[in-house]
Amino acid sequence: MRRWLAVFLTLVVLLLSAGGCGESSYRPGFDDNTRTESQPVTTKINVQGASGLQVHFIDVGQGDAILVIAPGGSAMLVDGGESECGQTVVDYLHSRGIKKLTVLVATHPHADHIGGLTAVLNNFPVDRIYMPEIANDSEQISDLRNVIRQQGLQVQVAQAGGKLPLPGVDALFLAPDHQDHENPNDASAVIRLKYKNTSFLLTGDASEHSEDEMLDNGMNLDIDVLKVGHHGSHSSTSQEFVEAASPQYAVIMCGIGNAYGHPHWEALETLSEAGTKIYRTDLAGNIVMKSDGESIKVISGGDSHTAVAKGNNQLIDTGTTYYIGNRNSYKFHRPDCSALPSDKNRVIFKSREEAIKNKYDPCQRCLP
Ligand SMILES: [Zn+2]
Ligand SMILES: [Zn+2]
Fold this sequence. Notes:
By secondary structure, the chain is of the alpha/beta class. It is built from 10 helices and 20 strands. Mean pLDDT is 83; it is low at 10-19, 23-46 and 301-319.
């Protein structure tokens, strides 16, 4: 009986959290404008004449939505999450005082990236929209193409070497270098943002194949912040790529308890071994980074630190605290435990209390 209750509660938690754009994806205190659940979203950042570069990784659960505010206030949105996240993205942009988008980029035609862009286009004037040229006939892409047509916009092709017109920032496409990729993820528009001595790489769902192409093409990959490819899947984030990028920070955008098991262990390990500090939207909610041109300030709800193990059990800092439950045994572990369940049996808890509330027992080995 107790077990059935636990299964039920776990399902409720997963249903509430995996969607990503419901109330439950909200985590208080993610920003410098500390607020509580009952307070409305407010902003202290005046976009007009904004100083420095801001990159906002908006928590849309399992999907990407990234708002870039250039020095001076021009705004670029890269992806907009699933369709049901459209309103979340629209609200977020309003809360930041965004009146229009200078640039909109749809990295590739998958629902978790373009679904919400229809709502964005219905709510904000857009100067320029970029997409890679790849055949796709999903419902989301036809909705998006319809609204683009209604707005009288011309889609510009996202292609390696192309410059993005975002005043105050050097913004360049590093991929795709050709337009006939079989896997839409590999057609992902990859953007390098450079502001004075700081730089960001936004990779969409680019996999190792695309990473290799960028390396082969001699692209300048050396950056400070990496938006990790494909939600932390093991199909991205090769060691060679991470070595070339040598990021100080990495951001993984994925949903709590997502069905793909993202982020995968291999990607976390590769980044951790490179000494990169990892931030995750599933654990931290919205993540905001601000660059003054010399250094980057991270504003995130997941600022508590814990350790995750490399293969040899050496502890390393991931910048977040979480616990891994085993759906079969109802044990929960520290992320560095040597007896972790396989990816498909994992359930993530943000706190010890959450695990216990769901009737999971602490592992006797790692004593979480
Ligand atoms: Zn994706
Ligand atoms: Zn994709």
